[in-house]
Amino acid sequence: MPLAVLFTSPTIRALSSLYEQHEDEKVWNPIVPLREGGINKALFFAHGISGNVFKYHGLGQRLRGSQPSYGLQAYGLNGIDIPFHDMQQMAAYHIKAIRAVQPEGPYYLAGGSFGGYLAYEMAIQLREAGEEIGFLCIFDIDAAKKKDFLPTGIKQFVDVQLLAERFVKRAVELAKADKEERKNYFDARKKQQNRNNDIESWLEKYKVTEMIGAESAAYFRRIEEACHDALMSYKIREYDGDVLLVRAQDSYYNNEYDDDLGWSHFVKGKVDVLFAPGDHNSIFWPPNVEFLADKIGDELEKTMR
To answer: I want to staple 144 with a disulfide (CB 3.0 to 4.6 A). Which of 11, 148, 212, 291 is the partner?
Structure first.
C-alpha cells in the first residue's frame, strides 16, 4: 500500500480493514488529505519522482489559519495500474482529480523537485481551459542555465570556460585532500560513470529496498522509472501567470544559473524567488519546514486578499 494510507487510515483497525478489501472494491484515488477543513481554497501538492506525497505532510500541517491542503499521489502507486510516462498525461489526470474536489478555480498548486514540473504543467493546462491560477509554487528546480540562450559560438566558449573553472577548483580541492578523501572522490566518479546517466534511485539512496523488501520496492521502481521518462521527454512551455520559486540555500545549483534558475525565459508573469534554509530535500524537514510554512503562508495570504 502507498505510504499515504498512514494519513487516511492512521489506526491498526483502519489499516486492517483497508488491507482486507477485495481487489474489485479498491478504487484508486490520487487525492490524499494532508489537512482538511477551513474556508480557504485548497493547496494541492504534486507528487515527486517516488510517486508519494509523504514529504509534504509536515508543510501541509503547519500552514497557518484555515488552509486545507491535499497531496496528489501517482497513478499506478497501488502496484496494479500502469503509470503514465508522459508529463502532460500525468497533469491531465491530476487536474481531473482536483476538479472532483474543487470544480472551479482559482486553483492553488505547488510541487517540489519532479512535482514542481508536474504542478507547472497542471497550471498551464488549467489556464488553457480558462481557469484562474491563484498560486503556483515550485521548489528548487531549474528551467535553464544561463548559457542555454546564448549564441552557439559564445555558448561553446562558456562551456570551455566553466569546464576549466571546475577543473581548477577540483584540482585544488584534491591537492588539499588526504588519501582517503581522494579515494572516495574517484570511487564516486567511477560509480557516476557506470550509471550511464541514469537517475540516482531514491530507493537505493535511502536503502528503501532493504526496509520494505524487493517485491514492494518493485512497485516504487516502476513509478520512479515512469516519472523519469516523463521528465526526460518534457519540454517546458510558456506560462502566462506568476510563479513563486523556492530555492534551497544549500542546493547544488551553481553559477551556471540565473537567480531564478532560468524560469523567467518561460514565465510571462513575475518570478519571485525565495531562499529557504536546507538542501533540496531538507527544506521540507524540521526545523527548516517551520520557516517554509511561515513564508508560504505569507504568500498565500497575499493572493487571497
So the answer is: 148
Cα 245 to Cα 275: distance, rounded to the nearest angstrom: 9
* DSSP symbol at 190: H
What pTM does this model have?
Answer: 0.78
Q: Please tell me the distance from the alpha carbon of residue 60 to that of residue 34, in angstroms, as a whole number.
A: 6
Domain positions in the chain? 5-144+215-304, 149-194
How far CA 81 is from CA of 94, 149, 288, in Å, comes to: 15, 40, 35
List the 107-112 sheet strands across, edge first. Answer: 31-35, 69-72, 43-46, 107-112, 133-139, 243-248, 271-276
DSSP structure string for 21-47: S-GGG-----EEEEE---SSPPEEEEP
Q: Where are the beta strands (DSSP E) in 177-301?
A: 243-248, 271-276
* β-pairing verdict for 31-35 and 69-72: antiparallel
Instruction: Provide the 10 A C-beta neighbour count for residue 126.
Output: 22
CA 78/CA 82 separation, integer angstroms: 9
Burial 34-55, CB ≥16 within 10 A → b, else e:
bbeeeebbbbbbbbbbbbbbbb
Q: What is the pLDDT of residues 130-187, one digit of tens each?
A: 999 999 999 999 998 765 655 666 556 555 665 676 677 777 777 888 878 777 767 6
In tens, the pLDDT along 200-241 reads 566 666 666 676 667 777 778 899 999 999 999 999 999 999
Asked whether the beta carbons of 3 and 223 are under 8 A apart, the reply is: no
DSSP letters for 133-160: EEEEEEES--S--GGGGS-HHHHHHHHH
Q: What's the CA dihedral at 145, 147, 149, 152 to 10 degrees? A: -150
